[in-house]
Write a structure and sequence with these properties.
The chain is α/β, with parallel strands linked by helices. Helix content is about 40%, strand content about 15%. The structure holds glutamine (GLN).
Length: about 475
Amino acid sequence: MHQLTLAEIARGLADKKFSSEELTKTLLARIAQLDPQLNSFITLTEDLALEQAKAADARRANGESGALLGAPIAHKDLFCTLGVRTSCASKMLDNFKAPYDATVVAKLAAAGAVSLGKTNMDEFAMGSANESSYYGAVKNPWNLDHVPGGSSGGSAAAVAARLLPAATGTDTGGSIRQPAALTNLTGLKPTYGRVSRWGMIAYASSLDQAGPLARTAEDCAILLQGMAGFDPQDSTSIDEPVPDFSANLNGSLNGLRIGVPKKFFSEGLDTRIAELIHNSIKELEKLGAVIKPISLPNMQHAIPAYYVIAPAEASSNLSRFDGVRFGHRCENPKDLTDLYKRSRAEGFGPEVQRRILVGAYALSAGYYDAYYLQAQKIRRLIKNDFMAAFNEVDIILGPTTPNPAWKIGAKNSDPVSAYLEDVYTITANLAGLPGLSMPAGFVDGLPVGVQLLAPYFQEGRLLNVAHQYQLNTDWHTRSPAGF
Ligand code: GLN
């Protein structure tokens, strides 16, 4: 049963081949047996899951239907969940129980999805390896010595290992697409504003966006359908109609114009990955797509701009964790200053502290113009580059990551080398565009992802292209040995 996709589960439940309760029990047992190898969950909510599963079965018995009704999922541990610990993988929030559900959590619960628990992640979503979690690193099911990518690494590892069919993630600079690539999944970062951020603990508010991680584009369509939509509680949520993503998967790719940026294939890209990406281009050409070389002239400025803007916003967002309003409080403070200092020094891990320092520095009087303002200007240039490119092409295609998953610990002493792994993903966040990563093959037994980017609100186009590709390739069907 654990091999079933969301789409297959929906059919099985509708045909009464099994109940949501049976499925939920099977998956919970599988998690208990296999997750100790992966560390992909921070909190399991078995009782709540069984309650939700029984309720979904009852709703089906009463004649209700729906692709998510009774479907098991899990949430990255930065979505607030009523009465359930929401830790952000930080000591700071180790004992934080949210007093309300995030919009995404509430919407999926209303659709009848069954939440098995909260998945591991990089602390406060800062990272691309899932090594910075207070609860320990997550392992990649394709090779337990390697990272699964981050920061949604727990969701990715769990889905890749068939512990459950799909999970939520968030993507500030690549944290859905990059772990999807490194674990052989399909992951989609929607347009900024498509999915509500209400109740999602903020890392960098102008970049954060929630989305689905699953094995297929078809499943991403199902999960995204349950997550997307206008939310008056999020001031950056956009009141734009949500199309039926599942209904649009079968459009023809005949004449689809795919832009391939030369800069995505320059120095730094593993040549074996480049070859697999070229193979996927050929595959799409067979389906009728037309390839056009394009240029994104300011792409090389994206990493420096992102690593000013994201830490700047993080330093502001994380100021609320002061041991008074929220979070860990140190023992026996001498005075208020000592309480703030020690609570934050004890509660935040080294990567989070590094980002807060960088961000506070970039925002400080005297440096603001030189760093933050410059970075914002670059952000506009990058957006303009994409706007110009999308005048000529329908989607943009390239690698998701320059390298396959690295060994756990390999980049610990060199944070910048980890930052460079985001080179292909962060441009979409800076511009607010939707992006998808899907399986494209293997290098040394480790998965490789191909990334597709589309104009604003064209998630449906990404899912359509990915689905057609997946009907004609079988990379996404491969599962890691031992799982
Ligand atoms: N790796 C990037 C960072 O560390 C992106 C993380 C994310 O998307 N949450 O900031």
